[in-house]
Amino acid sequence: LTKKFVQFDTQNPPGKEKELAQYLEEHLRSLGLNTKLLDFLPDRPNLFAEYKVKDKGKNFLFDGHLDTVPVGNISLWTFDPFSGTLKDDKIYGRGAADMKGSIAAFIHALETIMDSGIKLDGNVCILLTSDEEISALGTKIFLKKGYRVDAAIVGEPSCHEVNVAHKGVARWKLKTLGKSTHASTPEEGINAIYKMAKVLNELEKLAKTYSVSSKEHFLLGKPTLNVGTIVGGIKDNIVPDFCEITIDRRLLPGDSVENVEKEFYQILSRLASEDPDLKFELKLYHSHNPAETPINNPFVNLANSCVEKVLRKRSLVKGFQATTEMSHLVEAGIPSIILGAGDIKVAHTVDEYVQVDQLFDCAKIYALILLEYLSSGQGL
Ligand SMILES: [Zn+2]
Predict the structure, then answer these.
(1) I want to staple 299 with a disulfide (CB 3.0 to 4.6 A). Which of 29, 235, 282, 335 is the partner?
(2) Ligand 1 centroid to 306 CA: how many Å?
(3) What is the domain partition of the chain in residue ranges?
(4) How many A from CA of 337 to the centre of ligand 1?
């Protein structure tokens, strides 16, 4: 299954998830699931599938995404990134780890249970979203449509570790505005780059306060701030009338974008009061909330014990290093974890791969979680 899914080019942008969604819909329907392509973006649906056992009873959700990041420079790849080449117990290709391998494991786990004749005491849903790598709103839209589940696994590549939290991210464009004039008479203008230099100085100080502050999440570490890009001016002999930077701020659970923005405004307002020529514009252009399921949530314990049983080794919960759609689930009050095959470290790289033995272990873990979570009498 993983090989087959990798062979669909769902690089985002542009996405083109529809063909894979239709293929999977057909496949899941043939297994006996109720399926539905849900409107999300034009020609880019979310696929919802349900193995309905009971009208009442718990609903469990496997949450995944159909799109991948771009392959980048294809000549650097050892194998065609859309071949799904199997070599030395690894399947290579864009999306093998992030996260078509886990989607295959969702399906394999469920299919095995269905074939075994074991009757689950609840329903199993699979949601496969489009555009996770850019907007990451598929799950949010799904929940907005009124679907409700009682627990969820987001199948991002976690090397079989149970991840219960991830940071959020917010990004701003910050502009300083000046006044252009000929470079030979700079005193007649206002140099926006010099004004930005003052701002940058303060932002660097602020970033340092985060790195030494005692504010730290036990799994995610400290909040961070990075200025990633800068542009300003148009020509060497003109005093620049604008300079623009982008700021990336990683948020811990409990942080809010509003509070961070307030912090920026305090600094900028102080600078502007010290220097009346310092004019600025701050604009938030992207944000994704942090997520956390309490470590002592019964579903976390159940998942952790299933990992331990399958892998026969101790499993410690972790924090995930990237943002995921888990945040939407957590905001809807759904106990959720990130758990999947493959390593996030190879996820967006050349020669992305997933190990075949990891895929099988992952499917076993998923199957055991379904059995324990949805077994009569033993469920949570
Ligand atoms: Zn992913």
Answers:
(1) 335
(2) 23
(3) 2-166+290-373, 168-288
(4) 14
pLDDT at 68: 97
Specify whether the CB–CB gap between 222 and 215 falls below 8 A: yes
∠ CA 231-236-238, nearest 5°, is: 90
| CATH tag, 2-166+290-373 | 3.40.630.10
Is the Cβ–Cβ distance between 57 and 123 less than 8 Å?
yes
**What residue type is assigned to position 89 of the chain?**
D
Task: Output the CA 157–ligand 1 centroid distance in Å.
Answer: 7
Query: What pLDDT is attached to residue 86?
Result: 97
CATH 3.30.360.10 fits 168-288, yes or no: no
Q: Profile the chain (380 residues) by mean pLDDT over runs of 10 residues.
A: 97 95 98 95 95 91 97 95 96 97 98 94 96 94 94 97 98 98 97 98 97 92 97 97 98 96 98 98 97 97 97 95 96 98 94 97 98 74
Q: What pLDDT is recorded for position 375?
A: 85
Element at 47 (helix H, strand E): strand 44-51
Residue 215 burial (CB count, 10 A)? 11
- Per DSSP, 187 falls in state G
Query: Are the folds of 2-166+290-373 and 168-288 the same?
Result: no
CA 15 / ligand 1 centre spacing (Å): 13
Helices (H) and strands (E) in the chain, counts: 10, 16
pLDDT for 298: 96
